[in-house]
Amino acid sequence: MLSKSQLEHIEKRLLQERGKALRSLGLFDQMAKADRESGDSDLAAYTDHMADQGTEAMEREKAALFATKEGRYLYRLEEALRRLYNDPDTFGTCHTCGAEVGFERLDALPHARYCIDCKLKEERGED
């Protein structure tokens, strides 16, 4: 199990990588603005509101971007952040065998879901 300081380090790495991916997709400023504006919950009840239309357009654009290599990488980073925030106690355990992924592996590849052994087996096509 990862320590609190290790989890904080991995969170920082994920956020750094997310920022790089967003910048390379040209979305960092757009996403940051949307994050700031999403706090306005009084407008959520109005589906015809311009902000909702903008959000829908942004969601469509995000779906198209996730079809790109950089977009898929961003998606994996977002998923890792969700796993980290939703269940920090199990973050860093292999999704296949339940073993520790390892801090060094997570530091290098913060969105990793598999230990190196299971990842190598997957790449070789083994069960």
Annotation keywords:
mainly alpha, 6 helices, 127 residues, single chain
Layout of secondary structure:
Blueprint: H1 4-24, H2 28-37, H3 50-65, H4 69-86, H5 103-108, H6 116-124
Helix pairs in contact: 1-4
Structural features, described:
- Residues 41-46 have low confidence and may be disordered.
- By secondary structure, this protein is mainly α.
- The protein contains six helices and no strands.
- The longest helix has 21 residues, at 4-24.
- It has helices at 4-24, 28-37, 50-65, 69-86, 103-108, 116-124.
| Separation of the first and last Cα atoms | 26 Å
pLDDT < 50 stretches: 41-46
Largest β sheet strand count, sense and barrel closure: none
Give me the strand/helix succession: HHHHHH
Strand content: under 5%
Got a strand count?
0
Shape: globular
Q: What integer value in Å does the Rg equal?
A: 17 Å
What is the structure about, briefly put?
The chain has 127 residues and is mainly α.
